[in-house]
Design a protein that fits this description.
Blueprint lengths: L1 H67 L1 H68 L1 H64 L15 H94 L4 H17 L3 H14 L3 H49 L2 H7 L1
Protein name: Zinc-hook domain-containing protein
Keywords: ATP-binding, Coiled coil, Metal-binding, Nucleotide-binding, Zinc
GO molecular function, one term: metal ion binding
């Protein structure tokens, strides 16, 4: 039993040892994973630093090449600066010349407009004088036409009196027609009433008066019926005579109204035409009289315009300003051909502008670039040493971890 216990304790001790060894290897496995991640980060950092070293070397080489060409670049740039100053001066003269030419064009335009305006005024004055002379010559004829038209207006006034008489006659006929129509209506009503009485008597069989209810003999009824019949006949004859007279009066009224309407329409048309002509003639006469009064004034105005034109006495301020501008243009002495030649030369010399800027940059930054190269190379070297140590450590951990499968089998 003691031997079994001893073996058991030995097995337990060995098992615990294996477990501790496995745990240690598991920790080393974790360390290896972290180490590999660190190695990858270091490799990426080393790649970036190597790129920076290349970039700095490229920049440094460019700076050194620029410094080697300093004399050529500075000479070309000096020519560029001088040419640019001359070009700027010519550009200033060009802008001033353009401005002066613009002002000159505006002044020329104003002077031409003033001269053209005076010529136009001259033509208008001549045209007005011709019109005024023509209008003034029409005055006697216009007065004769107005006198004839006044005779016509007096005749139209007489016709107005005739029309008034026709209207009065038409009104009297209309009154008679209304009276006859009223009589006609009254007679028709009376005849209707008599007929109703006769109809009533014809239906009466008793010897009574159908109207007053008195006792009558047959002869009495017949006498009354005869009286009503005679009365109806008399009124019927009166109605016929009234109708004949009414038709006659209506015909006369219709004819007279037509005559009045035609006469009135003709008079209105003739009067409107005559009055319109009279108004136009009166206006024309006033204009002709006014034209005669204005002729001397227009002739005087025409003489003044002709004097201004002969002396070129117009836009005097603009003419003086134009003389001054022309003097300024001569003094400016701007030469477009020279300007174009200098502009082309400047374009050719612009190639030195950017090299000059970069040369100044090289002189200012070359020492910094050298220091940057040194720092980048040192950093890359440090990373290589660190990477070499990490790779050795990874190899050592890998060899130790090769025992892990055997240890798992033992467990």
């Amino acid at each position: 039993l003691s031997r079994v216990e001893k073996v058991t304790k030995e097995q337990e001790s060995r098992l615990n040892g294996l477990r501790q060894e496995k745990e240690s290897l598991e920790n080393k496995k974790a360390q290896l994973i972290q180490l590999e991640e660190h190695i990858r980060d270091t490799e990426r950092a080393l790649e970036r630093w190597d790129d920076q070293v290349k970039q700095h070397h490229t920049q440094l080489k460019e700076y050194e090449e620029l410094i080697a060409q300093r004399s050529t670049i500075e000479e070309g740039y000096t020519q560029f600066v001088k040419t640019k100053e001359l070009c700027d001066e010519l550009e200033r003269r060009f802008r001033q010349s353009v401005n002066l030419e613009k002002q000159k064009s505006q002044l020329d335009s104003k002077i031409r407009e003033a001269g053209q305006s005076l010529i136009t005024d001259h033509a208008l004055a001549q045209s007005r004088i011709r019109e005024l002379e023509a209008s003034s010559r029409k005055l006697p004829q216009l007065k004769n036409e107005l006198s004839s038209l006044q005779v016509q207006l007096r005749h139209l006034a007489e016709l107005d009196e005739t029309l008034l008489g026709r209207r009065q006659a038409s009104q009297e006929l209309l009154t008679q027609v209304h009276h006859l129509e009223s009589n006609k209506t009254q007679l028709e009503q009376e005849i209707k009433e008599i007929q109703e009485k006769l109809n009533l008597l014809s239906t009466q069989t008793e010897a009574k008066c159908p109207l007053c209810e008195r006792e009558l003999e047959v002869e009495g009824l017949k006498l009354i019926e005869t009286k009503y019949a005679d009365d109806r006949h008399s009124k019927s004859n009166s109605l016929k005579l009234n109708q004949v007279e009414l038709d006659k009066k209506k015909t006369e009224l219709e004819s007279l109204e037509k005559e009045v309407s035609q006469l009135d329409a003709g008079l209105k048309q003739d009067r409107a035409s005559a009055q319109s002509k009279a108004s136009i003639l009166s206006q024309s006469i006033s204009e002709a009289e006014e034209a005669g009064n204005r002729l001397n004034e227009e002739r005087k105005r025409l003489a003044e315009i002709e004097e201004h034109l002969s002396r070129k006495d117009f836009a005097t301020i603009e003419q003086r300003a134009l003389e001054e501008l022309e003097g300024e243009l001569v003094e400016l002495a701007y030469d477009p051909q020279q300007h174009e030649e200098i502009r082309q030369r400047l374009i050719n010399l612009q190639q030195y502008e950017e090299p000059k800027r970069r040369l100044e940059e090289a002189g200012r930054l070359i020492n910094q670039e050298k220091e940057a190269v040194s720092r980048a190379e040192e950093a890359a070297q440090e990373l290589r040493h660190s990477l070499e140590a990490d790779n050795q450590k990874r190899q050592s951990l890998g060899e130790e971890l090769n025992q892990l499968p055997r240890l798992v089998d033992d467990l």
